[in-house]
Design brief:
The protein has about 160 residues and is low in regular secondary structure. The chain has one domain: Pectate Lyase C-like (3 Solenoid). Helices cover about 15% and strands about 0% of the residues. The longest helix has 13 residues. The relative contact order is 0.11.
């Protein structure tokens, strides 16, 4: 509990004023859930968000570098332009998520649910990685994506 209070205080001091409300970030940290929230542009770098529920949330342009999102519920979330460098998304549910132009450099997607991962083009049933940077990312099957992996995991 003390960790959550300290983290909440630090977040209130350091978050820029974008399209989100700080109360939503506090809710996410305190309750581990903020489905359908608008957190676009938020800086959530390095946060421990294991198992959080962010289904259908607007996470466009959010900074989640080095964040721990293991087993996070991100089904239907929009992460367009999001920065997820070195993020841990192992076991996360990314079904129907939109990761268009997201930076997933060195991200871990091991055992993530990708709903069949539609790599090129949009679909209502698949995770969209169009234009996403997947350099050195660990794909859902544990393979390493090679440099030059843009929109698809080149093995």
């Amino acid at each position: 509990m003390r960790f959550v209070l300290i983290l909440s205080f630090l977040l209130c001091l350091g978050l820029p004023a974008w399209g989100f409300e700080r109360a939503l970030v506090d809710q996410l940290i305190a309750k581990g859930a903020c489905p359908k929230c608008d957190l676009s542009g938020a800086d959530l770098t390095g946060l421990y968000l294991v198992g959080v529920n962010l289904e259908e949330a607007n996470l466009n342009d959010v900074k989640l570098d080095r964040a721990k999102l293991t087993k996070a519920k991100l089904k239907g979330a929009s992460l367009q332009g999001a920065s997820l460098t070195d993020a841990h998304l192992g076991g996360a549910d990314l079904t129907k998520a939109n990761l268009t132009h997201a930076d997933l450099t060195r991200a871990t997607l091991y055992h993530a649910k990708l709903g069949g991962a539609k790599l090129i083009g949009a679909s209502l049933y698949y995770t969209n990685f169009e234009g996403a940077d997947l350099d050195d990312a660990f794909w859902s099957d544990g393979t390493l994506c090679l440099k030059g992996s843009l929109g698809e995991c080149i093995r």
